[in-house]
């Protein structure tokens, strides 16, 4: 068993930009904190490389039924949208949905932002997400809106607390499978 934890954007793909930062830089930092905490808990972790594309990462990893797979992102709207969302595959089972619900609840509770809930990949702006083809318990967490200064202030003030809670959730689901 292993946990697969990825940043969602590599160094040559900035992702969304807002609040004076780039999504890739924020997700890489956050992923690294969560990975360290998971390893400190004794979990085996496989992560993306900061220079590989999502396709390269997905081609390299070998997730299975005994895996927890999570990817971090920051949302952007160009307006004053706020909150956190977690995405699951269109074929998500109860464990995928439960894992995603715990992730989004933790983000909303710790950051004190709107809980936008768990949505299927078909409800995302892309419609289909490569990560959702992986085996195991799979979720993609949109932590908050990178272009909402209030969301990002809450995130910056609570990064470690959020990472710690997410690591605990990952460990819980690792222990279930």
Output the keywords.
4 helices; Aminopeptidase; 177 residues; two-stranded antiparallel ribbon; globular
Structural description of this entry:
This protein has helices at 23-40, 54-60, 94-111, 149-176, and strands spanning 2-6, 17-18, 21-22, 45-47, 67-75, 84-88, 115-120, 137-145. The protein is globular and about 40 Å long. 40% of the residues lie in helices and 23% in strands. The strands form two sheets. A six-stranded mixed β-sheet has the order 4-1-5-8-6-7. A two-stranded antiparallel ribbon has the order 2-3. α1 (23-40) runs parallel beside α4 and α3 (94-111) runs antiparallel to α4 (149-176). The protein has four helices and eight strands, in the order βββαβαββαββα. The protein has a single domain (2-176), classed as Zn-dependent exopeptidases (Aminopeptidase, 3-Layer(aba) Sandwich), CATH 3.40.630. With 177 residues, it is α/β, with parallel strands linked by helices. The protein starts with a strand and ends with a helix. The model has no long low-confidence stretch (mean pLDDT 92).
Task: Describe the secondary structure blueprint for this structure.
Blueprint: E1 2-6, E2 17-18, E3 21-22, H1 23-40, E4 45-47, H2 54-60, E5 67-75, E6 84-88, H3 94-111, E7 115-120, E8 137-145, H4 149-176
Parallel strand pairs: 1-4, 1-5, 5-8, 6-7
Antiparallel strand pairs: 2-3, 6-8
Helix pairs in contact: 1-4, 3-4
């Amino acid at each position: 068993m292993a946990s697969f934890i990825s940043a969602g954007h590599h160094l040559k793909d900035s992702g969304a930009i807002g609040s004076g930062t780039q999504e890739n830089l924020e997700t890489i930092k956050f992923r690294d904190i969560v990975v360290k905490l998971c390893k400190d808990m004794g979990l085996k972790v496989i992560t993306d490389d900061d220079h590989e594309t999502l396709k390269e990462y997905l081609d390299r990893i070998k997730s299975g039924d005994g895996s927890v797979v999570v990817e971090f992102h920051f949302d952007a709207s160009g307006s004053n949208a706020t909150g956190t969302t977690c995405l699951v595959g269109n074929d998500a089972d109860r464990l995928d949905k439960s894992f995603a619900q715990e992730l989004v609840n933790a983000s909303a509770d710790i950051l004190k932002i709107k809980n936008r809930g768990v949505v299927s990949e078909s409800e995302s702006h892309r419609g289909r997400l490569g990560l959702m083809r992986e085996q195991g318990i799979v979720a993609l967490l949109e932590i908050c809106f990178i272009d909402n200064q209030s969301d990002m202030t809450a995130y910056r003030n609570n990064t470690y607390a959020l990472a710690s809670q997410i690591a605990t959730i990952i460990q819980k689901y690792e222990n279930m499978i």
